[in-house]
Each structure stands twice: as C-alpha cells, then as structure tokens.
Amino acid sequence: MTSFQNRRQHLASLLGQGDVAVIPTAPEQSRNRDSNYPYRFDSYFYYLTGFEEPNALLLLNHLGESILFCQPKDLEKEIWEGYRLGPEQAPQKLGVTKSFSVEDLDKIAPAFLSNHASMWYPFGVNPVMKEHLERWIDELSRKVRTGVRAPHSIKNACHLLDEMRLIKDAQEVQTMQKACDISSLAHIKAMQFCAQALQNHKELKEYHLEAELLHEFRRHGSEFPAYSSIVAAGANACVLHYRADQAPILSGDLVLIDAGCELHGYASDITRTFPANGRFTAPQRDIYECVLNAQEAAIAVTKPGATFNDPHEASVRVLCEGLLTLGILNKSVHGTLEDVIEHRKYTSFYMHRTSHWLGMDVHDCGSYVQTPSPDNADNATPWSDLDPLKPWSSNAPTSRTLEAGMVLTIEPGLYIRPSPDVPEKYWNIGIRIEDDALITPHGVQLLSRGVPVNVSDIEQLMA
Ligand code: GLY
Ligand code: MN
Ligand code: MN
Prior knowledge:
By secondary structure, the chain is of the alpha+beta class. The protein has 15 helices and 19 strands.
C-alpha cells in the first residue's frame, strides 16, 4: 500500500458509519487575461491521492472505497497542455477503487452521495465545488419520494485531515528534510554572493539575492518557493511582510532573508539575518546575540510533552531580558523583567509569535489548542464566564501538547524602529532567526541547520 492509500484508509476509519468524504483539488487561478498562475494542487487532495492534475475530485466512503474524478484523455488538449492520466489508468496507478471523467461529475457524483448520513467536505478550499455540492444535495432532496435520502449534514473534513497532517510520517519528514537542505544551500549561496558583490564594488539590490535563492531552489528540483521570498536590506527588515524589492544593499546594512523552497508539496521556512559585508557591527551583534539566545532558549524547551506556547514564552523572556540589558526598554519606565513580560511591553519590538506548524502549507494546518474536535464542545468556555472585551487569548483553551512527528518553526526576532526612547545605535535594526523543528520521541531535531546561525560561523562563511 502506498502512503496515499494508507491515508485514505485512515480517513475512512474516522468517518462515521455511512458517511462520505468529498475532497476536491484546487481550482486553476487566472493571473491575467488567458495566463494562469502556475498550478498548485490542493494540499488535502494531494495528501490523499498524490495526484497533481487540476480539475479532479476524490470521493471516499467509510468502507475505504474511493472514486477519483479526473480529466479525460484528450489528444488535442494534451498536445497543448500536457499529459493527462485519465480515468482508465487512474485505478491501477493511484490505487483508487474507480475513476470517472470529471466531465460526468454532475451526472455521476450524486448517486454516490445518496443514502449517506453525513458528507465531509474541506470548508473554504474550493468555492466552485461548494456550488456543485449544494446542487447535488438539492437534486437528491428532490428525489425523496423515490426513497432516496440526501446527506442530512455537511461536516468540515478539515477537522479530520488537519489532525492527520499535523503528525508527519517518515516519508514526509524525509521530504521536508530535503526541502530544508535545498533552502539551506540557497541561503548560503545568497550570503556568499552578497559579500562577494560588495567586495567587488558591484551594485547590489535585494532582487539580486532573490534571484540567487530561486536559482538554487530550482536547480535542486524544487517546484516552487513555498512563499514569496523576503529579502530586506537595512530598515526594510523592520517591515514584517516585506518582500524582495529593489532597495540597494549597502555595506554596513544587515540583510534579512526569509525564504524556503517547496519540494514535492512540502514547505521549508528559513530566516537568516547577516551583515551585507560579512562583519557584524557591535550594535548589530548585540541584537543578533539576543535573538539567537532567545531562539536557543525556545529550542531547549521544544520537546514532546511541552506545549506549543512554551517556546514562545521562553523566547519572550530572553528577548525581554536583552531589551532591558541593552537599554532599549528602560527599567525606570517599564519596571522589572516580570513587569515587562506581564504588561507585554516588548510588543513594540517583537510583535509576532515564535512558531507555526509547518508541512504541506507554510502556515500548516492543525489546531494550536488542546481541544481539536469542534464536536467536542465540553471544554468551551461557558458564556457566563466569557468576557468578550478581553483579548481572545485569555479565553482560549490550553495550548497544544507537542508530540513526536509534529513540525514547527522557531523564529524569534527583534525589529527596532527609530524612536527617541531607544538608543540611536539600534535604530532600523531588524533581525529574525528561523529554523524548522521536528519533534522526535525524545526531543527535537532542527531540519534547517545546514545554514549556519552563529555570529562567527556566518562571518567565516562570508569571509
Ligand atoms: N515565511 C513566513 C513565516 O515565517 O511565517
Ligand atoms: Mn515561519
Ligand atoms: Mn519564514
């Protein structure tokens, strides 16, 4: 059995007696006029099928029987658009029970949905498919007098699939490791290219480094960047969602690169911040060491049995210690370390969280809290205890316990905008350090340390 067949069996086992799951792939997206964006399958659909073509849909019943609707063979279309597997080959190639042309979807699919209790469908994935589903249910409802029953409820299949995808199997881990290895090479290439260009007095812009990253991703077989690469020189690093633009990179600048490739459907997500000319200045090093210490503290608490929030809390504590020690937060104004943490005085300099799940999607699916099932409302806060004007987090259920097979990023940062309250030597320094962490049975394994992270290792690499 392939891992895709195993996953279909697993999902089938989670469906209720007489339930059916409908999992469409992603629609094609128009970019402009008759040009589409490069096609990227839907992650849930690919996870269950390994099938990359557009215009496809999987039906699965609780017995584990599966039907794939896919594009029919069509010589004329295949000459223009490329090879199609076709429904004749699909059962043998993908191990599905049956396959039909997607052109017959509306004709055939309702019969497979009839007399099933609940229909599971991933909400929010494919707006076009939603219309199909509503039409099919309407059609079945109209046949009620012939003894046909329409599914009486539609449930969100994401809640089942997210939990499955949260724990990576050995094959997924291997692919994620390869994606991280490629991204690490790309970061190294960009760092070295940057130092060399400046040594040779060449004009250098952010997009030149992006080009190095993309070249390295692609030449190692990555299909796409996992997200738009951030290459931010100098003050641009303080803009969290900056991307690689046209700003010049000058000697003396720090450069923040947040870039990762996607390999066979799996994302990597790495950030490094380095001095453009290869040597940190003293103030840059102060902030860098503070962020690195925060990352080390976070990594030290990342293990099975810890919670998702633990690395964040560990990072925040070390960042706050650093902000106070460096005089960026003034003790006489903001009080002790505990005051700074409790009153979140650090949020002007650290405004994002330390981690997110990583997998097929860069911000991968999976609940961040301990009560993943929406059907299990036992732990919901009673209305009588709920204060709707408080931050949501104070009403939130407990943070998720980490388990072997989960992959999360660990990415503390500090972003220091000019302010009269902050020593001027730190103005416009933006630093983030991001690695990808696999929870193992006894601890944590960093998948992305093919690219150095210590000050001396970075300086040596760029020398
Ligand atoms: N690159 C996106 C993120 O770090 O969350
Ligand atoms: Mn990230
Ligand atoms: Mn990132």
